[in-house]
Amino acid sequence: MNYLGRHVIVDLYECDPDKLNDCDLIRNAMIESALAAGATIVGDIFHHFAPQGVSGAVVIAESHISIHTWPELGYAACDLFTCGKSVDPWKAFELLREALNCQRHKEQEIQRGIFPYAVEHKPPCPSAQAGDD
């Protein structure tokens, strides 16, 4: 592997507006998606906007997963950035797509930290637990 991470950028269209506006549902789906991808969760933060919309992030030892929602448009933007070989951002994507009842999506994967030689990267804190600072 000659790159440090995989960054999957996702646009989710025609999602269930009620789900996009449910901060608890989104937080749970994001945490479940991080775990399904094989990530180590370090912490999370989510915010519900008035009158609608949610932004949030799950920080993982291997990088992060974030989301921003526009319920009025049935749309969510997600970034799934993972480092190393052990975490699969596409597993996180599939779970989020299903949790939000997404009918149409567009995604792109970008390799981050590309080097002209093989690199062996280990997450900075693979045994981190939520609340460790």
Question: Would you mind describing this structure in some detail?
Answer:
This protein has 3 helices and 6 strands, in the order E-H-H-E-E-E-E-H-E. The chain is an alpha+beta fold and 133 residues long. The longest helix has 14 residues. It starts with a strand and ends in a 19-residue tail after the last strand. Its EC number is 4.1.1.50. Belongs to the prokaryotic AdoMetDC family. Type 1 subfamily. It is an enzyme of class 4 (lyase).
* Highest CATH level, the class: Alpha Beta
The name of the CATH topology is S-adenosylmethionine decarboxylase
The string of secondary-structure elements, in order, is: EHHEEEEHE
In round numbers, the mean pLDDT is 91
Major pleated sheet: 6 strands, antiparallel
Primary descriptors:
single chain, 133 residues, S-adenosyl-L-methionine, S-adenosylmethionine decarboxylase, S-adenosylmethionine decarboxylase proenzyme, alpha+beta, lyase, six-stranded antiparallel β-sheet, 22% helix
Task: Summarize the helices and strands and which ones pair or pack.
Blueprint (H helix, E strand, L loop, with lengths): L2 E11 L3 H4 L2 H14 L4 E8 L5 E7 L2 E8 L4 E9 L5 H11 L4 E11 L19
Antiparallel strand pairs: 1-5, 1-6, 2-3, 3-4, 4-5
